[in-house]
Amino acid sequence: MPFKLTDELLEQVQTLISESKDAELRTLMKEFHYADIAEIANELDEEEATYIIKLLDSEKTSDAITELDEDVREAILNNLSPKEIADELEELDTDDAADIVGELPKELVKEVISEIEDRDHAKDIVDLLRYDEDTAGGLMAKELVKVNENWTVTRCVKEMRTQAEEVTRVHSIYVIDDEEKLKGRLSLKDLLTVSTETHIREVYIPKVDYVNVNEKPEEVAKIMQKYDLEAIPVVDEIGRLVGRITIDDIVDVIRDEAERDYQLAAGISQDVEADDTIWELTRARLPWLILGLFGGAAAAVIMGGFEEMFKKYTVLFLFTPLIAAMAGNVGVQSSAIIVQGLANDDIKGSIGNRLIKEMLLALLNGIILSALLLLFTWIWKGDFMTAMAISISLIAVIVVAGFIGTFIPLFLDKRGIDPAIATGPFITTSNDIFGILIYFWIAKLILGL
Amino acid sequence: MPFKLTDELLEQVQTLISESKDAELRTLMKEFHYADIAEIANELDEEEATYIIKLLDSEKTSDAITELDEDVREAILNNLSPKEIADELEELDTDDAADIVGELPKELVKEVISEIEDRDHAKDIVDLLRYDEDTAGGLMAKELVKVNENWTVTRCVKEMRTQAEEVTRVHSIYVIDDEEKLKGRLSLKDLLTVSTETHIREVYIPKVDYVNVNEKPEEVAKIMQKYDLEAIPVVDEIGRLVGRITIDDIVDVIRDEAERDYQLAAGISQDVEADDTIWELTRARLPWLILGLFGGAAAAVIMGGFEEMFKKYTVLFLFTPLIAAMAGNVGVQSSAIIVQGLANDDIKGSIGNRLIKEMLLALLNGIILSALLLLFTWIWKGDFMTAMAISISLIAVIVVAGFIGTFIPLFLDKRGIDPAIATGPFITTSNDIFGILIYFWIAKLILGL
């Protein structure tokens, strides 16, 4: 039952296209969900994909277009006339339509918009273009059901019926005043049990969750998750109801944000996918590697400063990769917990307390790990003092690494900078350098060099 | 308007509890959403939190209990009698109720279940306990609206009305046959426009997405995201409709999975939060650090084998942290892209092609980075041959690191093991060792030692 894109199916589609068997193609595609059509189109070449989109009904292809990979969508839209694009937009909800218009070349936008027959729809799309993509306004759709508090139940039911036709999923009925300000929401049950001449202002529920147009998408996601909402109204600076955000858009926000944080932690700086070109992947990865290279060069220079120790205590140098690795690991662990805690609003209390806790934790881990290392080095090299020096240095390195890993994301967050950039290579590299510096310095002190 | 948990509010609540001002507490809490009450209770001590839960209506506290931190919930439930727990369960949807029962001590379960007055509700909860937490069955609720294909529209509307009372959000009306097998779904609009004596089998839509009870939560999440579903029916092995999963539960699945992958990549092995105790955090972090320690010790032993090179080519040793860091960074980047690609079903084509692509990418990055390093080392130390040896080794190390980072997660995935465990410390540590080994081996070869 579930759709599966097989090589056979893909071949069948390609053959039907090359032989222009339109009727058969239509019959075949009729069975598929728009998300499946998008999956097929992603695998076709530009001409084939365009052929499919032109062949099928806008009602189906419009949604498929929103689900396409961005580069495929761009290529297909390039092959469509402004009128054809307008036909697709006509079928879409305003938020999806605005997203597509936002991707069009600037010189094309005006023409496409003017071809949209439903002028209210066109107006709504243009309104949405004004909002920054990274705000609640950039996420919301104009489709919603709203009633005026001064209407009677009779009028309300009549108006709702017209509005609901435009809205795929109603979720909630919002109540506004004459100035379009959001006043509350309406329970369908209440509406059906009161007299038809009652005014809405007597029956509506004044308690309603909402967000401001300028709210960040992540904040909207948090609110909708916390209160288990499937839709939330959006108001402008003076409280007027301007749109509505539904949970499916929020699911995308949550997933995108998680992917971004994950990529930052792994040292990948842009939104890339496994199937991108080598060049795109290099651009996303090389900057962090160069950072690592500079860090490594700095570590080499630092170690160069301790070269005179080589002859007597070669063993110290054998453990530099271990020291660097431990400093990096502890730093990444600490910063990841802080970044995740900040994202979930789990970080309470002062920065001072947080740092003390993290350093106690690092101390505990450091003592256990150092005891193991002491045993290993002592047995291996038979020199207790050197083993002791290495182990004590390791404790210091781990405590400092924990401090840095905790402090940097907290500091960035206080400054309004996304703390997630402090995970991954950034922390690893700085901890490598500090770790090696502390290691040689303490070892030198203990061994009395 | 949005709720904010301030220190003043917390103090006010604590004072009201200590002075037993029940009426005032009730009035204060009446304004709050259950998720806010949970947020308050999480910050109170055990007695205070229990006091609040006992004081307020089960209708509100039941949902608050599901939102509590796990340890707080456990403590509160410990202080409630079986009857009191049953009262809370009575108010909850079956999926949430089953989750709570699953957390209760075994000896208590029978007693609590027997105290539930609504026997159908109790039966549904017990049914749900049978399913593995990590399946669609473990996620689903029993609350849904279903009608028999042999009913007339009149009977259908009557039955739907009764069923809908139990269901918070209806989403869809499912159609079953006499054997409870899922046949399709019903459009409310169709239902209202046909004659009341029509049979459901003549009007229902036979196309409906569903999942099997044994499906993994991540698969359910993928299907619901792909098809923009807000609810999906769950069927058993022989196609009988047994439950329904709603989007709010899927949002939790997506978030939990993202957090887990992120923590694995950061070297944190259990689901911990910033506010957990030092002991819990140590248990989650120490295993990976010990792995890193072993890796570091192995690197030390390897380097020890090249000790005779020390006198002549000390400079080689200065660059071991750089080599280890680059091998680790490249490995983590490669594995993170593969893990994310696998999670999103983006990885198409053979493993062989994937490995060739990754190695070409690593080669490109390696050449750029090595050129930079060559320049640096040559200028710093003035010895072209050594600089050359280090740089060529770096290219080899980066290519191998890319290969390992790509191969291991693909291999684990083929074997049915979660590839995410191969990110973070695991890749870093193995790449450190391989990197250092390759580095000294190639340098030795080039310098003719």
Describe this structure in words.
2 copies of one chain form a homodimer. With 449 residues, chain A is mainly α. Chain A has 3 domains: 7-137, Alpha Horseshoe (MgtE N-terminal fold), CATH 1.25.60.10; 145-246, Roll (CBS-domain); 278-447, SLC41 divalent cation transporters, integral membrane domain (Tetracycline Repressor, domain 2). Chain A has 22 helices and 6 strands. In chain A, helix 19 runs parallel beside helix 21 (384-414) and helix 19 crosses helix 22. The mean pLDDT of chain A is 90. Chains A and B meet through helix 15, helix 16, helix 17, helix 18 and helix 19 of A and helix 15, helix 16, helix 17, helix 18 and helix 19 of B.
Multimeric status of the protein = homodimer
| Largest beta sheet: strand ordering of chain A | 1-2-3
- What's the CATH C level of the largest domain in chain A? Mainly Alpha
Structural class per helix/strand content of chain A? mainly alpha
Strand content of chain A: 5-15%
CATH architecture term of the largest domain in chain A: Orthogonal Bundle
- Find the biggest chain interface: A-B, 99 and 99 residues
Subunit structure (chains A, B): Homodimer.
Family (chains A, B): Belongs to the SLC41A transporter family.
Function (chains A, B): Acts as a magnesium transporter.
InterPro entries (chains A, B): CBS_dom (IPR000644), CBS_dom_sf (IPR046342), Mg_transptr_MgtE_intracell_dom (IPR006668), MgtE_N_sf (IPR038076), MgtE_transporter (IPR006669), SLC41_membr_dom (IPR006667), SLC41_membr_dom_sf (IPR036739)
